[in-house]
């Protein structure tokens, strides 16, 4: 019987799908420690980790000879795993693409609408018991319908956001992608992130995380956006230079931001928490029950494929 180490509490269906094997469950909501992950690598055939369970090269080296052959990541993003180092230690890595596209795109729209229409401010006003009643100039926001959205990263999630913006809100879509793309929605590919920033009222960051996209959106992009514009990030926190974002917001260089991810999660800078024109969510992109079950089942499919000697379903 193969042994699988599961680093977190997952929906019950995920563990049920592994019932033919010995599952060692770390039934917790916080990331596993370095020592726990080293022990897991030594004593298990596969590990089902997720965001925050860090596998840098030095951890893999410190683990010495390992029994594990697979890190079946729960999540599409895998920037917490040094994939090259994992491979060098005989470990395959898989992720869960596709199944969280709609949930994450829905959340991008949540942030666009909430930030543009000042929903957070309104909610806080009502909740605090301070609402004095309707008046014609209260909390006037940006009308989203008919605006231009600029999407940075036209992968599966970027395309799903484009569809929602175009078909749902009649928005013009411009985008930046490092390779040529023809999304299934009318959209114009521009040749730089700055060009997207200049053209768009709302810029949405939807690229994968990792060294290649670290601080991809910095002071230059933010300056190009203009004082009416909104930045939304549903990708990885460090794709946006958070200090530059705070400076741009403080200087009124952009109108607001809708953030689901942060550079040093779960820390969220106090400066951002103080700002009324910023919508802050706790990395909820894929947080629907059906999506989290589907992500777990995709991770399990990869584990079962390994144990059955079949090709992995979604290797990275
Ligand atoms: C992912 O899958 O990478 C998300 O950020 C977690 O849902």
From TrEMBL:
PROSITE patterns for this protein: D_2_HYDROXYACID_DH_1
Domain of life: Bacteria
Gene Ontology cellular component list: cytosol
One term of GO molecular function: NAD binding
Similarity comment text for this entry: Belongs to the D-isomer specific 2-hydroxyacid dehydrogenase family.
InterPro entries: D-isomer_2-hydroxyacid_DH, D-isomer_2_OHA_DH_cat_dom, D-isomer_DH_CS1, D-isomer_DH_NAD-bd, NAD(P)-bd_dom_sf
Domain D-isomer specific 2-hydroxyacid dehydrogenase catalytic residue range list: 4-316
Keywords: NAD, Oxidoreductase
Protein name in the entry: D-glycerate dehydrogenase
PANTHER family in UniProt: 2-HYDROXYACID DEHYDROGENASE-RELATED, GLYOXYLATE_HYDROXYPYRUVATE REDUCTASE B
Keyword Metal-binding: no
D-isomer specific 2-hydroxyacid dehydrogenase NAD-binding domain sequence ranges: 109-285
